[in-house]
Amino acid sequence: MSYGRHEVLRAVTLDLPAGAVVTITGPNGAGKSTLLSILGGLRREYAGSCRFHDREVRGWTRRAFAQQVSVVPQRVQMEFPFTAEQVVTMGRTPFCNGLFESPEDHAAVERAMQITDTVEFRSRDFRSLSGGERQRVVLASALAQTPRVLLLDEPTTFLDPEHQVSLFRILRGLAGKGVLVVAVTHDLNIAARCSDRLIMLRAGEMRAAGRPAEVLEPATIRNVFSVDAQIHQTPAGIPWIFYGD
Amino acid sequence: MAIEPVSAKRVWGVSGASLVALAAALAVLPLIGSVRIDYSRALAGASPDYEIFFRARLPRVLLSGIVGGVLATAGVLFQALLRDALATPYTLGVSSGASLGAVLAIVFGWSSIAGLSGLWAAAFLGAGITLLLVMTVASERRHLSSFTLLLAGVTINSIATALILFFHNLASFSQSFAITRWLMGGIEPVPYVTLAWLAVATLPVILWLFWTAREWNLLSIGEEWAAVRGVSTSRLLLIGYITASFLTASVTSFTGPIGFVGLIVPHALRMAFGADHRLLIPASFLLGATFLALCDTIARVLLAPAEIPVGVVTALLGGPFFIWMLRSKRRSLWL
Questions:
Q1: Prediction ipTM score
Q2: Do B286 and B15 meet the contact criterion of CB atoms below 8 Å apart?
Q3: Which of A79, A95, A121, A126 to mutate to test the interface with B (most CBs of B within 10 A)?
Q4: Among A153, A188, B130, B227, which residue carries the largest CB count within 10 Å?
Q5: Residue of B84, B229, B334 with shortest CB distance to A66
Q6: What's the whole-model pTM score?
Q7: Longest dimension (CA), chain A
Q8: Which residue in B186, B181, B169 sits closest to B107, CA to CA?
Q9: Of B10, B11, B24, B16, whose CA–CA distance to B290 is shortest?
């Protein structure tokens, strides 16, 4: 994958199984978001192959693909006064025919808003919400798509600790129902805590992949992030990383 | 402040109320003018009421209705496509292109092109060529960049304006008067057959825009936002720009540029009903039509028997209203 002459991704080979939470991490410019956008069908001019259900991603119609795969971007800017509920309802577009939503669509929207704790500000202008509230509304919109694959770009950036924990629970719950969850994050502790598989990228190349406990080694972190790290363990046996000496 | 949710009941309710407002305007406004006329006499064919009602005022009210509705809807569409609340039907330079075509027709005396009115055909061609130029400049690997489109529109607008000034300089006194009148924008009575053609050309497009309103909602947030929800954004952007420019060109060719309608009507309605295009498109068309029909009636009667350009009225009514909106308590629902 290139931007002009600048090659952003190369030598990345992945097989992402259903029912897993996969985290992609790496320093700035590693190609994480580009990889996510290829997986999400947003960039269709890539070299190599990216297949979903045995069909090349760029071979899917947008609508059919959106019925299976949803994407949560890091940030959404809006120019116009859509309500939180309208934003969530937009997630039902791939399933709607005609002008209005069906009772099933309304039920999916209601479920997504309850799961993400966004019901209380459903009638508020999206632009008037805090960063964390917006992030939850955008997540609800992606959940309303009832995806088989959920892709998230830095999903915890604006979330407070309570809603970060809630997000982990939601993602694990989805994986338990067979949904493939792929999240991009800079935060290794989040990756260690919530993922089944961790992929580390640097300069467009995959430098490490595997279970977090296997991959999160000081030498690997130095190789990928150019920073020294100490690895400890929480009482639950999850790796906990401190940066620096 | 809460915004009401959009439901089928609300969409049909708002559209129905807007239709009633437009129907009332179309019924009442032709009765208003410098000469008092009687409805029953006009309907009975009694002279001069019949001629004033059916030949002078009604076609003009109908034309202003179509033009107002089309400009307001084109404004909504351009704002969604460019994700810019300040976009208007004229942002891409379509009206400057139409004006340049009209000026050339006046200066070179093209009374007829391919059997059509030379002025109208030249204006329409000018608008079409401008759109083609802007889109050619802005397209990159079969993709249209909104930012480049805006810049290309502004640049080609400037070039067209310079050419208008150049040819205006070459014009005789009577041509210069005709050019100035055209550039001011105005509604003149046209034959019913012309109105019918205009309605046939624009109304199906407006209905299609309403039918695809859900996609305009998504696109007004962002291309990636729309793409991951199943919209073919490159195709929709291309169709959207061509449609919005076609709508603008088709009415601007008849009336010249009429400002403010495509800006204030969408903003006022967004403030009243929110941003959902399922409400915004029908309400903008129907109430934009009502607004311009009302403005044109004011333009006819304010200094009767003299007339003032309708663009002056839309700006004088629209400007203070816009300022009131900026200061109002509901501005948070809109800006």
A1: 0.90
A2: yes
A3: A79
A4: B130
A5: B229
A6: 0.90
A7: 60
A8: B169
A9: B24
